[in-house]
Amino acid sequence: MRICFSGPIVAGRGLGKTVEMPTVNIDWQAEQPEVLPSHGVYLSEITIHNQKHYGLSNFGLRPTVDAEDRVTLETYLFQYIEGPLGQRAEVCLLEFIRPTKAFASLQEVKDQVDLDLLRAKELIEKSKA
Questions:
Q1: Where do the DSSP E strands lie in 12-116?
Q2: Rounded distance, CA 63 to CA 46, Å?
Q3: How far apart, in whole angstroms, are the C-alpha atoms of residue 63 and residue 40?
Q4: Among 92, 89, 72, 85, which Cα is nearest to 10's?
Q5: pLDDT, tens digit, for every residue of 22-80?
Q6: pTM here?
Q7: Alpha-carbon distance 46 to 24, whole Å?
Q8: In the chain, domain spans
Q9: Which of 16, 87, 92, 94 could form a disulfide with 4 if both were Cys (CB 3.0 to 4.6 A apart)?
């Protein structure tokens, strides 16, 4: 499975930074792919500055921090780089890791992301074998 989105990098609310989990947010809706993926967390590859980076992307709702039904695409990079606002980026969802779920706190989100990172790195190693 490989579903790619392109769009400008946009400002988020900065909540991820409060738990050392900054994300790159993409305005994906102007250039939607033909098929939209299920909402959830994915191993992903993001291209910024013509360089590819692995990350974890959440495509869908953010029930822990948002009450609104707005679908977002945000990516936590394994090695964070600052993406200038407005610059174009491409995010390709590679492997589904888990469905979206609500957590009681941002710290619980961070703890789950740590587990998701382990799973994502296993998937990368498996693909190289």
A1: 24-26, 40-48, 51-60, 72-77, 88-98
A2: 24
A3: 11
A4: 85
A5: 788 888 877 777 788 999 999 999 998 888 999 999 998 765 556 667 778 899 888 87
A6: 0.85
A7: 9
A8: 3-128
A9: 92
